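Collaboration report, partner site 2.

Our partner group contributed sequences for two proteins of shared interest, and the home lab folded both. The records are reproduced in the order in which they were received, starting with the first partner submission.
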Amino acid sequence: MLAQLALKCLIWGFQPKTTLNVRIDANRDVDALIKTLVAETPGRFQGIDPPDINVEDYLKVEPDTLLSDVFNQERSGRFDLIVERPRELWLNCWLVGTDPSKVVVINPMARQSVQDLRMKIRQFFSEIFNETLLGDFCLYKGSISCSELEEKGNYAPTGPNISLRRKLSDLFSHPHLPDCLDIIIHRSRKRQFLALLPRLTTSF
């Protein structure tokens, strides 16, 4: 009979802090443990990567590490694992040429890249970008507030566009500010968008 581990997990990123007890065969690896965590907490841990999981003494664990190699002694009364919930960003995005009051919220994961954000934006504006290559629009970091944008009525981005290779966590390390315009979407060719705006929701 295979030995089983009873692991006490501290889930970091929820308020109040969540604990979870997981039972898993000792000969399984860390990747299997991640799948178990996701299965036992549906919808809460999609996207967990091994770098987000530490043993109690903060040792990083790799996906192919055998659990029996990590948890090989009694750890009574202590947390075995600290699992960091993937951080989600709330980015206020505005498409140049549309109504300044139509700022939408896009929710990528902090670990994702600008390229991933572009894909989510394209999906969100699918009716507008359905025949458009990603190279037809650029993303700029906003430098004004949403309320200032409404007052001005329009705004042209300045400076270089954001590199696709940048990590979103490097660009947006601050807490979400509801009035901050985070991303400006600038098209290389002008089109008429206003007729489509009533059909757009305000978050994705």
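Second partner submission, folded after the first:
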Amino acid sequence: MPLKQLYEPANPHAIEWDHSYSKEGTEEKLLRMLNLLSISPAQVAAIEIETRGQAQNNMWSKHCEVRITASKCHTICHLRSSNQEIYACQFLSQQKFTPRSTNY
């Protein structure tokens, strides 16, 4: 019998919801580290200026990687159970997606 069948799979939700050993949870820590909890009006203006040009601008891509954009939200809302795991892997690895319809 393979060794991995002797143990139950790990529960990834337990890391966040089981016990809190620090003042803030892991989710808040990550969001704060990525500067996603609060952005000042000055930061908004700076981001807007440095991300002009969208797809031709590397900073635009960098800022979009950590945010759920409208197109990502639409895709997430319309996932089927058969492709949820595949899209989750793509979403986490941040592979650039270029559909065939836009390649010309």
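Feedback sent to the partner group on the second submission included the following. The mean pLDDT is 77. Residues 89 and 95 are 9 Å apart (CA to CA).
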